[in-house]
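Q&A FORM
Asked by: J.P.
Topic: structure of MFS transporter

PROVIDED:
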Amino acid sequence: MLQTEIPNTNISKREKIQYGFGDLACNLVYASISSYLLFFYTDVFGLASGVAAFMFFIVRIFDAISDPIIGIIIDKTDTKYGKFRPFLLYGAVPFCILAILCFSTPQLAMGGKVIYAYATYIALSVCYTFVNVPYGALTSAMTRDQQESVSITTYRTFLANIGQVIVSFCVPLLAGLFANSMSIAKSWQLTMVIIATIGGILLLICFKGTKERVRVPASHKKIKASDIFEQLKVNRPLLILSIFFLIIYGVKSVVSSTGIYYITYYVGRPELVKWYAAIGTLPALFIIPFIPWLSRTLTKKQLMSISILTDIVGMIGLFVVPSTWIVAIFVSRGIASVGNGMISAFMWALIPEVVEYGEWKTNKRLGGMIYAIIGFFFKCGNALGGMIPGVVLAMSGYVAHTTQTTTSLHGILIATSVVPICLYTIAIFCIRFYSLDKETYARISKELVIRNNLEFEKEKNI
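REPLIED BY: S.T.
REPLY: Here is the structure written out as tokens.
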């Protein structure tokens, strides 16, 4: 009998946790890069802030351009392990090694250091794409159920935030502890050996503990490069969501990069860096478990707007509070963390439904390609977010390891708070145009089930 209803997929908590280990692994490295690589390049590796800022922009753009190519490779993959899981298996070890190399300081002349930094950062970025894009797309292969997708993403985001907490607190702590018995350069390298090795192991656990369930008719697997442009043309929710990712990850990158400068120089309390970083993630852990309930109670636009406005309130606090009011600064940081956590937990849950919409419009299920398109935009956001703080620091006269001028301190404050507020304002305007509401998505999913099962029946009879 032809199936006309969306099949119920009850995914166990264990599998959701093991899936979430993948984002925990990715964030152990991603958060280290976002939060500390600019600081490492300027204050440990020895690059000028302007050189480092330009490199961030070039590497991220190069990385973003490679995303669609990798997306096509993913969608053409078909192995005994599935379409997406093999990339976790074969990418884990290179991912670990390249993360360590990025935080290593070889004895080279300045020109050699610049070349080394470019080479290792580009290689890590491409490897990250080979792991993270199929990892993200794996959600759309685990279930078609929208609420299960939200639940899976909630586990994923919770563990991703755990990764950010670990990085926020442990990376500066370990680097500081190791520096008592070795050079600062060696201490950063050893710290990343520990962080990256844990990440590699977690990726292997994710590979082992997850399952791809969604079956796709053979006709939906005929992929070509031009499908990228077709998706951007007919899949309006994808285009809106891509722009949203561009803005949000631009903000995330700005906030991650500037935090260590804000506390070290503007507040003048470098010993609080790990606590400031941790409070930027910890409060979100308490709100993330409520995201499935919030997604059932509020519309998507309401949930995203409330999340962004909460983050803006925290950013305003960081701007107006005097640098000596430590408690108020940490409260503001915590409020921003709640808003940021809500955004992160929900925005990723929208991608599987965008994949479904694209399949409904084009009769092709392009999970890898769509995640790669999203990846292109959020990495462009990372590129801008990584570049903006370096440019602001350079323009305001920042010089490492010295007492900062009033102008450079003001530049740090602007980069930490005003820039994110301006970008968030654009994001609120952008999300208004996301038209894929709950009712529309439910109708599309039901139609896809009927259409695909008809195609399965035809394939049996051939």
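FOLLOW-UP: The chain has a mean pLDDT of 83.
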